[in-house]
Automatic annotation (TrEMBL):
Pfam families: HTH_18. The keyword Transcription applies. Residues 220-315 form the HTH araC/xylS-type domain. This is AraC family transcriptional regulator. It comes from the Bacteria. It comes from Pseudomonas parafulva. Keywords: DNA-binding, Transcription, Transcription regulation.
C-alpha cells in the first residue's frame, strides 16, 4: 500500500513559538516548512492507510509549507480560524465551522500559506486511495467516496451535517490515552468515513424489520432522519408512519442497534450540538438552550452538566 501522506505521526504542545520544521509534523523528504507556531498538534495512524489529526495553532509569523500530497481523501472539520492552500494551481479555503473534503486522484504539489497572527483549530481524517478502494471492495456503501478520487483534485465545502460534526468533536475531546485512545480514534475515524459516504449518497435505506439486516437498515435510516433536524426532530409516530412500520418495531430496532432509546438519542444529539455552539462562543447560554429545544435555560444547564460533567459556562 502506498504512503498515506507526508504528515507524520507526532504530538507536541508549544507554550512559546516553536519551529514547525523541527517538530516532526512533516516528512522532510516530501515537504519543506517555514514558520513557527504556538499551541498543540497531534496525528496518529489508527490503521493502515487511515490517519486522524487535530490541532489548535497560532502562527506568530507567516507560515509556508511546500509539499507533495499522494492520492488520498481528506475530511476536515474547521472549528475555528481558517486555513488555505493551493493544490495543482487552485486555491482552496477552509472556513470556520464548516466541513470540507479534499480528494486527490494522483500525487500533486501543494502549498500552504497563512498570514502572520492567523490561527487554526481543526480536526481531520486522511485515508489513502488504496485503503479507500479496499473498503469499497468489501462494502459498496463506500462507493460514493471513490467519485472524489476520479479526476485530479476535488475540493468541496459540505452543507451542515451534525452527525459528522459530532464525531469530530468526540475525537477532538477524546478522554482516553494509550491503546484506548487509538481504538477510539480508529472507530470514530471509520465512522466519519462511513457517515460521509452515506451523506453523499443521499439514498434512503429500505427497512425490512423481519430480518436482522432489515432492522439494522431501519435503525440507520431512523438516525439519518433524526440527524436532518436535530433541533426539531420528527416524533416517533411520524417516523414510524414515514418508514411504514409500527412504533414498537421502530423503537426496538433503534434500541438494539444503538443501545439507547430514540428519546435518549435525541437528547444526546441536542446536547452535542449545544456543545458545538457553546464552544463557538457566538450565542449566550440562554439562546443556545432555546435553539436546541429547551424552554428553560436552567433545565438546559442541568441536563448539560448531567451529560458532560460540567455546566456550559465552564467550557
Amino acid at each position: 500500500m502506498q504512503s498515506l501522506t507526508p504528515y507524520l505521526d507526532t504530538a507536541f504542545c508549544f507554550d512559546s513559538p516553536g519551529s514547525l520544521a523541527q517538530a516532526g509534523v512533516l516528512d522532510a523528504r516530501a515537504a519543506h516548512v517555514m514558520g513557527s507556531a504556538t499551541g498543540h498538534y497531534r496525528a496518529q495512524t489508527v490503521r493502515q492507510g487511515l490517519q486522524y489529526f487535530d490541532c489548535h495553532l497560532h502562527f506568530p509569523e507567516p507560515l509556508r509549507i511546500d509539499k507533495v500530497l499522494p492520492e488520498s481523501l481528506c475530511i476536515v472539520q474547521m472549528f475555528d480560524g481558517a486555513w488555505q492552500h493551493k493544490v495543482d494551481g487552485r486555491l482552496n479555503h477552509y472556513d470556520t465551522g464548516r466541513l470540507h473534503v479534499l480528494g486527490l486522484s494522483e500525487s500533486l504539489e501543494a502549498q500552504d500559506q497563512l498570514p502572520v497572527d492567523s490561527h487554526a483549530r481543526m480536526a481531520g481524517v486522511r485515508i489513502a486511495g488504496d485503503a479507500l478502494r479496499e473498503l469499497a471492495q468489501d462494502d459498496p456503501q463506500f462507493h460514493p467516496l471513490l467519485a472524489l478520487l476520479a479526476d485530479g483534485m476535488h475540493f468541496d465545502q459540505l452543507p451542515q451535517c451534525p452527525s459528522l460534526s459530532r464525531l469530530f468533536q468526540q475525537l477532538y475531546r477524546s478522554p482516553y490515552s494509550g491503546s484506548l485512545r487509538r481504538l477510539h480514534y480508529e472507530s470514530l475515524s471509520l465512522g466519519i468515513v462511513l457517515e460521509l459516504a452515506s451523506h453523499l449518497s443521499g439514498q434512503a435505506l429500505t427497512p425490512e424489520p423481519q430480518q436482522d439486516g432489515g432492522r439494522r437498515d431501519l435503525a440507520l435510516e431512523t438516525r439519518r432522519l433524526l440527524d436532518t433536524s436535530p433541533t426539531a426532530p420528527p416524533s416517533v409516530a411520524a417516523l414510524a408512519k414515514q418508514l411504514k412500520v409500527s412504533e414498537t418495531t421502530l423503537r426496538r430496532a433503534f434500541s438494539q442497534q444503538f443501545g439507547c432509546s430514540i428519546l435518549q438519542y435525541i437528547r444526546q444529539q441536542r446536547l452535542e450540538l449545544a456543545r458545538i455552539l457553546v464552544l463557538e462562543r457566538k450565542w449566550q447560554i440562554s439562546q443556545i438552550a432555546y435553539h436546541v429545544g429547551y424552554a428553560n435555560p436552567a433545565n438546559f444547564c442541568h441536563a448539560y452538566k448531567a451529560y458532560f460533567g460540567h455546566t456550559p459556562g465552564t467550557e
